[in-house]
Amino acid sequence: MRTAKVRPKRRKIRVGDRVRITLGLSTTLLEVVEDRGNLGVGGRQIVRVRELGPYSDPDSTYEVRADDVTIVRRAPTGSRRRNDRPGKALGRAR
Fold it and tell me: Which phi and psi (to 5°) does residue 82 adopt?
């Protein structure tokens, strides 16, 4: 008898979502900047995040498992900032 392979439930975390993670006794607000895909152990989703806040470094990003974060606010669907469109130069006037 063949047993079906059990896959972990895929979290629908998208780029631009605001998420929260608990580290020790504190919770940190993060923004998802990249979906790395199902690279984790057992096909778990990995996302690259950056910390939000007045004292956080905007260039500092790190990777976390989607299972470890809680979605606080979803990113708007179908909308991008003008400079984020593929094939467009950043800061270029129309």
Answer: -60, -40
Region 21-38: mean pLDDT is: 89
- On whether residue 82 sits in a domain, the answer given is no
Q: How many domains does the chain have?
A: 1
| The predicted structure's pLDDT at residue 79 | 54
Instruction: Name which of 20-24, 40-44, 45-49, 78-82 the model is least confident about.
Output: 78-82
Containing domain of residue 69, as a range?
Answer: 18-75
Question: Could you give the CA distance from residue 34 to residue 1 in angstroms, rounded to a whole number?
Answer: 41
State the amino acid at position 29 in one-letter form: L
Contact 13, 73 (CB under 8 A): no
Model-level pTM?
Answer: 0.66
Return the structure tokens found at 7. 């896959």
The CA distance from 47 to 38, in Å, is 9
Entry field: residues in the chain? 94
